[in-house]
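Saturday, quiet lab. Running sequence design on the structure tokens for the scaffold JK sent over.
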């Protein structure tokens, strides 16, 4: 009996370690980001890649940056292996020597033609009992994210298990936000995500 309890404890402990990653909504990821950019992978080097930027949605403008790949695990794998020419939208925090992707695959979104594939809690959609990858128009996505970042930032790291403050800070005017949330379906979605959390005015 003791042996069975020990085995169960080990299994639960292992599950707890794997469950440490909290999947964050895109609104928090965008609010936390120091830099949000679109572009393509130029060079892949071990666990990093050089990223050539075509458009900046938030933060300082760079031509190229070095990005540290996120650590993959059972429930958070890259959709495709990193390779030259891969088009992405990245949500990043500044590290000591490289930029770091926020929240794993949720902060590294693939671009194909005129669409962008969402990650995290929005990664899949079910229509007529069929599961498929969830995508949105690239123009609608980038306009919504850019405008969102003019309205809100997020204070904290999104981990509500610690005792640190976690909330959205409104940095745009009420008029800006009223216009933003009506601009597109994706804008409305980002706004509605903020209503799940505490919002404080600047």
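Result came back. Writing it out in full:
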């Amino acid at each position: 009996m003791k042996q069975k309890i020990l085995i169960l404890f080990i299994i639960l402990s292992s599950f707890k370690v794997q469950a440490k990653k909290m999947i964050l909504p895109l609104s928090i990821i965008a609010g936390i980001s120091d830099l949000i950019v679109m572009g393509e992978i130029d060079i892949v080097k071990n666990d990093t890649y050089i990223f050539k930027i075509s458009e900046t949605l938030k933060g300082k403008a760079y031509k190229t940056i070095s990005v540290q790949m996120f650590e993959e695990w059972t429930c958070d794998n890259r959709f495709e292996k990193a390779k030259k020419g891969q088009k992405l939208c990245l949500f990043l925090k500044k590290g000591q020597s490289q930029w770091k992707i926020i929240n794993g695959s949720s902060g590294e979104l693939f671009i194909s033609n005129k669409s962008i594939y969402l990650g995290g809690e929005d990664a899949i959609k079910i229509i007529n009992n069929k599961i498929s990858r969830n995508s949105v128009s690239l123009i609608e996505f980038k306009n919504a994210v850019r405008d969102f970042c003019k309205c809100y930032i997020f204070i904290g790291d999104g981990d509500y298990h610690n005792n640190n403050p976690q909330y959205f800070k409104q940095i745009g005017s009420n008029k800006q936000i009223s216009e933003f949330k009506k601009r597109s379906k994706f804008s409305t979605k980002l706004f509605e995500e903020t209503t799940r959390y505490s919002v404080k005015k600047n």
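Notes for JK: The chain has one domain: 24-201. The longest helix spans residues 2-18. Ask whether to fix the surface positions before the next round.
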